[in-house]
Design brief:
The complex is a heterodimer of chains A (about 350) and B (about 260). With about 350 residues, chain A is mainly α. Chain A is about 80% helix and about 0% strand. Chain A is globular and about 70 Å long. Chain B is an alpha/beta fold and about 260 residues long. The chains are: A mainly alpha (about 350), B alpha/beta (about 260). At the A-B interface, helix 1, helix 8 and helix 9 of A face helix 2, strand 6, helix 3, helix 4 and helix 6 of B.
Chain lengths: ~350, ~260
């Protein structure tokens, strides 16, 4: 026990702590701003490239309705803006939802792609395509419903005097496998053309966005991202375990319910817009933590990382590869090695759960 | 005068009652140790006092008001708790963790202030963890880690502090160090402390008041010198022993026969 309670050492400690805290705050601001700049740049760049090359100025002027030029407006507003906006919105939603899940369930593997929410959406969508010959908006609506039902199902199954992280993940993985089996069954029953459409949807692509859902997702983001930021404080307390969180004065079930609902709605809408694009939700949070310092867990930086990833993946999928591919193929190719690395290292530390 | 008290308290999980019909007055400004054999309900009692468990029957009151009728946020400004196995996010630094103890003093829109800085600094100084602030918790030794958790609880700046087996998993040196820290907090800032402790001898040495429990009931309570006798230890722990005065402090010391 070093210190006695004289004033001098305490002032020094307070000063040192303040410096640490300010440095962290400055880093958070710098990283968030840089990410926002990167996202904006990628957003514009996505709309510049293609068979009809445009300058950044032309794109910005057209998007903001600053100038009228029918041919440019047709390409930008008509063809490229929906895809770019969908990549941006889906990326933001998946990044935010992923990090909320991971922090809430205290496990880096607990992203919506793994706990059955995506597969719930997939099962509903594939069932619609195969049995009802559904397309477009109907598939998206089914996906949205499937994701919400899967989340509720897991919540009910995992409930026992509250929801513990571990049980939720195990049940989530079980539910995901069960749904995967049913998806496989559906595909074997399908006509070849339906199966092809279903497989394409299951890979996930930002290009398949319908205007209706996209608007819904953008509206949800405007509402839910600020909600998530307000609930960040509760999330930081919940990360310390329920007992500590309660002792600190958190209303644990209410806060957890609010956070889970936010994350589930964001995921469900993202899947409805673009199909189950995998790995973005899994890696956005950990990348944000790498940039910000461990366990900082900022929801906005994670959302911005998600958008950066998805905009980049879309650029690569559509323009850099010899044949255009669905976005999900690119995110999968990047995400799978990360997942292996994660499994290898967390198990070595014994923290993987 | 007791700020925290339980009357007719029954607590349990699922269908099973663990402690039944207890009356407890926590003495203000004192250190109270709750002792007893494994599964006697001592942690359950502590969790009940800290409103982590809702009473089946009876009431726990703080300053005359039932805990169940107070907002949990208000309670957290007066009553702190360090759970038995607190969890920390991977890679969290000491500064970040201790700062999270300020949670009850912040609101939806209330920002971090100088007062929060000072409270964190006091907690770091009191626990001797000031030079660890930039270290990740995971890299610290068990004793250091436990002091950091205590620092977080101190940063919460409550008049009452409950600790659930704070010395478990620590070696004898760190156990004594931690209990000395609690004693210092008690004498310097008048904090009321309640701790569930396993080691009877240390409990006698560092507490003002002992509550001995067996099978969900309080068997005896009072000053260690009055309460800890060979008969009581036999009754509570089923251990045949003699009780002699501790050669250093004169408090009761249990020696098995």
């Amino acid at each position: 026990m070093a210190a006695t309670a004289s004033t001098a050492p305490q002032a020094a400690t307070a000063g040192a702590f303040r410096t640490t805290r300010r440095r962290r705050a400055a880093r958070l601001l710098a990283v968030t701003c840089s990410l926002a700049v990167a996202v904006s740049a990628l957003f514009v760049l996505t709309m510049m490239v293609g068979s009809f090359q445009l300058s950044a100025e032309e794109v910005i002027a057209s998007v903001l309705y600053l100038r009228d030029d029918p041919s440019v407006d047709f390409v930008v507003r008509g063809l490229r803006l929906p895809t770019a906006a969908s990549a941006l919105a889906v990326g933001l939603a998946l990044g935010a939802a992923g990090t909320i899940f991971q922090q809430l369930l205290r496990n880096p593997l607990a992203s919506p792609d793994f706990v059955g929410i995506n597969t719930g959406a997939g099962l509903a969508a594939v069932t619609g395509i195969v049995l009802l010959q559904a397309g477009g908006l109907a598939v998206s609506a089914l996906a949205l419903g499937g994701a919400v039902v899967a989340a509720l199902l897991m919540y009910v199954l995992a409930w026992r005097d509250g929801v513990a992280g571990y049980r939720f993940i195990l049940i989530g993985i079980g539910v995901a496998l069960f749904f995967d089996g049913l998806i496989g069954y559906m595909l074997t029953k399908a006509q070849l053309s339906d199966a092809r459409q279903a497989m394409h949807w299951l890979t996930g692509s930002v290009g398949q966005a319908e205007a209706g859902e996209l608007r819904l997702l953008l509206g949800a983001l405007i509402l839910l991202l600020p909600t998530a930021v307000l609930l960040q404080r509760q999330l930081r307390a919940l990360e310390l375990g329920d007992d500590t969180a309660r002792a600190l004065g958190t209303r644990t079930e209410l806060s957890r319910g609010g956070l889970l609902a936010t994350a589930v709605v964001l995921t469900a809408l993202a899947v409805a817009v673009a199909g189950p694009i995998i790995f973005v939700a899994l890696i956005a949070g950990p990348i944000a933590n790498r940039l910000l310092g461990p366990a900082t867990g900022g929801i906005i930086p994670a959302a911005l990382v998600g958008a950066t990833l998805l905009l980049t993946a879309d650029l690569v999928a559509v323009h850099l590869l010899p044949t255009p591919l669905p976005t999900g193929v690119v995110t999968g190719a990047v995400g799978a090695p990360y997942l292996l690395w994660l499994l290898a290292t967390t198990n070595r530390q014994g923290a993987g759960g | 005068m007791t700020r925290l008290r339980a009357e007719g308290l029954t607590l349990g999980y699922d269908d099973e009652a663990i402690v039944t019909n207890l009356d407890v007055d926590v003495l203000d400004g004192k250190i109270t140790a709750i002792v007893g054999a494994n599964a006697c309900g001592k942690s359950t009692l502590l969790r009940g006092l800290a409103r982590l468990l809702k009473p089946r029957h009876g009431v726990v009151s703080l300053d005359g008001k039932a805990l169940t009728e107070m907002s949990t946020h208000e309670v957290a400004k007066t009553l702190g708790l360090l759970p038995q196995t607190p969890l920390a996010p991977d890679g969290i630094t000491v500064a970040d963790l201790v700062a999270r103890g300020r949670y009850p003093h912040q609101g939806w829109f209330r920002r971090w202030t100088e007062r929060d800085d000072d409270a964190v600094a006091r907690a770091l100084d009191a626990t001797g963890t000031a030079d660890l602030v930039n270290r990740p918790l995971r890299q610290l030794s068990g004793g250091q880690r436990q002091r950091v958790w205590v620092a977080m609880a101190i940063a919460q700046d409550t008049d009452l502090l409950l600790l659930d087996e704070p010395t478990t998993y620590l070696d004898i040196n760190h156990q004594v160090e931690l209990l000395r820290l609690l004693r210092k907090l008690n004498t310097e800032s008048g904090k009321t402390i309640v701790a569930v402790l396993h080691d009877l001898n240390l409990a006698c040495r560092f507490s003002d008041h002992v509550i001995a429990m067996a099978e969900g009931a309080i068997v005896a309570e009072g000053a260690p010198t009055d309460v800890i006798t060979a008969e009581l230890v036999e009754k509570v722990f089923g251990l045949a022993c003699v009780v002699v005065p501790d050669p250093v402090a004169g408090t009761p010391m249990v020696v098995p026969t």
